[in-house]
Every structure is written in C-alpha cells, then in structure tokens.
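Here is this case:
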Amino acid sequence: MKKLALVIRTVAAWGITLLIVFPLIWLVLTAFKTEQQAISVPPQIFFTPTLESFAEVNLRSDYLLYAKNSVITSVVSTLLGLGLAAPAAYSMAFFRTKKTRDLLMWMLSTKMMPAVGALVPVYVMAQTAGLLDSLTALIVVFTLSNLPIMVWMLYSGFKDIPADILEAARMDGANVWGEFLHVIRPLAMGTLASTGLLCLVLSWNEAFWSLNLSSAKAGTLATLIASYSSPEGLFWAKLSAASLMAIAPIVVVGWFSQKPLVQGLAFGAVREGASSMAFLELRGVEKYFGSLRAIKGVDLSIEKGEFVVFVGPSGCGKSTLLRMIAGLTEIDGGSLQLDGRDITRLPSSKRDLAMVFQSYALYPHMSVFDNMSFALRLAHVDKAVIKEKVTRAAEILNLVPYLNRTPRELSGGQRQRVAIGRAIVRAPKVFLFDEPLSNLDAALRGQTRVEIHNLHRSLGATTIYVTHDQVEAMTLADRIVVLRDGQIEQVGTPL
C-alpha cells in the first residue's frame, strides 16, 4: 500500500512538473521550426531543426541593441535600487519604531497596485521631462517599481543579524559605513544577492513600461518580442526564436547564480604599555525607559587596575549600567568620567573601552585572526604590528592553533577566549564583561573563571564584570557592587 502511494505521488509530481515546464519546452521546439512547421496541424513533434527563424530575427531586428538596453536598464536599476533600499532597510531593522511595520506594509502594498493605474501620470511626466523612449525613464521606473520589495527583503535579512554583533563592531571602532561594509554586508550577502537577482529578473522581464515608454531607441527585449505580433497575425516560429533569445541570458545568469544564493552564512588586541590603567567615575548616572526610572542616580568610583563585579537579581539594572558605561545605551542623567576625561556623550568606539559579550558576538564570516584584528584594521594599524599583537594575545589565551578557524569550528570555551582576545588586542583602559560565562557548562565556567582571573593579574587592567553568580563574584572581585531596583544597595570587598 505504501509503495503504491509512493508511486502515485511520484507520478503526480512528475506530471505537475511536466505541465509547468511544457510551455517552455514547446517554445524551444517551435523556435527551431520553419513558419510552416510551426503552424502545421497536427503539430509536428519530429522535425529537422533549423536556425532559419533566428537568422530572420537577426536580419529584421537589431537584437544586440535590444539586448544592450535590457542589460543597462536591468543592471543599473538593480544597483540603484540596492543603493536606496539598503540604507532604508538598515534603519528599519536596527532602529525600529512602532510605525516600522506599518510603513513596510504600506510600501509593499504599492507593489500590488496595477501598473496601468499609474500609466497616465508617469507617461505625462516622462513626456514633459523629454524622457520618452529613453533608458533614463525606464531605469527610474524599474527602480521605483521594485524598491518596495527590495526594502522588504533586505529588512527581513538584516533583522536576523544579532544586535550584539553590531554593538561589538561599534566597540571596535566601526562607524555606520564600517558596520555595513565589514559586518552587515558579508553576513547578509545571501540576502543582498537574492534581492538583487530577483529585481534583475523583474526588470529584465518588465514589458508593460517598456512597451509604453519606449520604442525604437530604448526598446528592451520585451519590445523585440512584441514586434513579432502584427495585424496580419503572429509569426510563431520567429516569435518563439525572439522569445528564446530574450530569456536565454537571464536563464544563464540565474543558473550560474545558484551557488552563491544557496550558500549559507553561519552565525553561529595587546597594546604596548598595557600598564596605562584607568580611573572610572560615575556621578549621578540615570536611565529612563519612558516613564520608568531604570537607573536611579548611581554614584561609583572605580580605581585603576581594580576588578569590580556588579551582582544582583535579574532586572536590577546591572547589565543596563554596564551598557551605559560602554556607550551602547545612552545616559539620560549624570556624567561618566574616565581618567579625568568626560566621556558621557562620546560614542562607544571613542571611550577606550572593550566589551566581552554574553553571546560572544564574534563575526561568523571571519577567522579567529580576523575577529581579533578587526578593530586594529579599522584603526589602520600597520599589518606587522597587528600580526604581532594578535599573536601575543593568542599565545596568552592558547589560541594560536585556532587562528585560521572560523567561530563555528570552535567550542564554547574557545569562542569565549576569542571574544576576550579581541578585547585584549585593543588594550583598552577598561575591560567590560557582560555575564561572559553564562553560556558555558559548569566545568568550562570554572576553567574560564580561572583564566579571566589570571589574565587580570597579568595585564593589571581595570575590569568591570557583570554576573548573577555569587561564586564568580566572590572569587574574581576586588570589590563587589550589589544592585537592586536600579540603585547601588551595597559595596564591599569579598571575604
């Protein structure tokens, strides 16, 4: 019974597939017939192929002109669309508001509007601007018609990139362009490629606007196909040949684009003079989320080389306070001073701090070496110096054998050491740790805790460490800061 059901499903699947592709198969067969063979009744299945129709199309029409126009309009409109859609999708994905979803739905709804509804105003505007039968008009119209779907697709891809990876990039010194170029672009390459290919195909196949806004000079391959329909009737063989010549280039492009489209992207520094230690002071620091006062006037002084641990129950504000120090969350009140310098309003990359995130926040498309050297490369440090500093940090953390591996090839403990190494290479004045051991098992937590302790002793750097684990706090801290309901409840040294 099961075998019979399998056979039925297989036959049905092949039948549906054949039904779908039959028009294309018939198109190809007809293109290699003469006009007489193309209109014969009953249809000729077996015949001697001929290139007569292709030769007549080339003789009658300037195929290369139409093909060139199709290439220019589709490629330029796609690139222009990506250039406009990417910033819009970036802002919507990483700076979402209550209206973001509504805006996206409105944009997408414009794609559902029949093109004929906008024909008259678009035609009049093109005529007034002297752009009828011009590539410029087609490029602008193709771009605008595809823009909503491009924004939607890029938004869907961008929003899946973990925010902490972008925050890590900011801590490393990347500006908005650096974020996009070095982090978002490689991580979202599949989304960018598929979006570009889809819109390339849509522009290539666009017939309505090509037929209504162009004729002799700016006609695309869609115009060429339409030219083989005349009042006297259809030239079936020539029409099939012209259609095959029109679709062949985009089919070839799609075929060779399969590999980059299906490839998945897995998500999965030591400065000279590190003895330059910091003095960090928080004065009346406050944070509001709407009407909620999350951080309530925190005052705290941290000495040079001190290891301070923030502890407290979930929701007490310890991670929020750490992110405010890092510059990832804005300070709404009070001030933050580092080594006598007010850094309250400085961006995170300018604060001379480095942060180790709970989720590691490693760049999955980069090797261990590239992850650790990223901030230095952004700062245009000499390659020899970068290699020296990364190698030294790798030696400290026993990461030398793994420098050429990607994060997905590492264990959780190794990833955490890479995240720490990335911070070390920068040699910041203050190290920030946001529950770095929470994703590790008990054995690895104990081992990594010892490594962090030894690292602090060897570097002597000022460190702020957030945890809810009392054992971590008691074994690592020079001082423990207990937080509750957004304020400091107690400060003291461990027993």
Q: What stands out?
A: Residues 263-277 have pLDDT under 50 and may be disordered.
